[in-house]
Design a protein that fits this description.
The chain has 208 residues and is α+β, with helices and mostly antiparallel strands. Helix content is 25%, strand content 26%. The protein has five helices and nine strands. The chain has helices at residues 46-61, 68-77, 136-149, 166-171, 198-204, and strands at residues 2-5, 14-17, 36-39, 83-87, 90-100, 119-127, 156-161, 175-179, 190-195. Helix 1 packs across helix 2 (68-77). The longest helix has 16 residues, at 46-61.
């Protein structure tokens, strides 16, 4: 069997011979890495996490939400509260969180993890620079919130963000709690809250 090939209207067509023998698809070479994977992060992912975070935040605000040591600390203490999106084995987006035990976030919440609490503090959501403007942040956040619904004992998620990000989190189902008491390099934030509860919770949680 032959297949006609013409790469340009100004070039003469030529033919490629194709093999007659069919290849068993079960014997074809398989990819060793999944095309897309969501999983909890580990301390081994810390460098990749920090590189994405540093590029995303330092150029805008001059500050990283988490230092490399803090990334390692949280991934060592509460990796189950993190989620990474990998494509071809490479980290393209992530969320890191920790536990918190008070009604509102305070400055101490930025560096502490309180285990066995009903509140998750989302420290950072970041997307690799080559994967932005593709909706990956919204997809990852939605998957993360559905994942948290299946974690026993969790009741809500808290985070702080700048004013321009408030619409993004409102669209994801968060509610405004008002100005945050936390400040970083004179930057002011709004505190946002997401509740796990109600009929939607029971319905989506039925397969957990």
């Amino acid at each position: 069997m032959t297949q006609q090939v013409s790469g340009s209207p100004f070039l003469k067509s030529f033919f490629l011979k194709t093999p007659v023998r069919a290849v068993n698809p079960l014997r074809q070479r398989r990819h060793t890495l999944p095309a897309s994977e969501f999983r909890n992060l580990t301390p081994q992912d810390a460098i990749s996490v920090f590189e994405i975070e540093r590029e995303a935040f330092v150029s805008v605000s001059g500050e990283c939400p988490l230092t490399l040591d803090e990334v390692l600390n949280f991934l060592g203490q509460c990796s189950e509260l993190s989620l990474g999106w990998f494509e071809g084995g490479q980290l393209v987006a992530f969320i890191i969180s920790s536990g918190w035990d008070k009604e509102r976030l305070s400055q101490e919440a930025m560096t502490q993890h309180v285990p066995d609490t009903p509140t998750v503090h989302i420290h950072v959501l970041s997307v690799h620079r080559h994967c932005r403007q593709q909706g990956k942040g919204s997809i990852l956040l939605w998957r993360y919130l559905q994942y948290l619904r299946c974690v026993p004992g969790l009741r809500r998620a808290l985070l702080i963000c700048e004013d321009f990000l408030v619409p993004f989190y409102l669209k994801a189902g968060f509610k405004e709690k008002g100005p945050s008491a936390i400040s970083v390099s004179h930057m002011q934030f709004q505190e946002m809250e997401y509740m796990f509860g109600g009929q939607a919770y029971a319905r989506r949680n039925s397969s957990c």
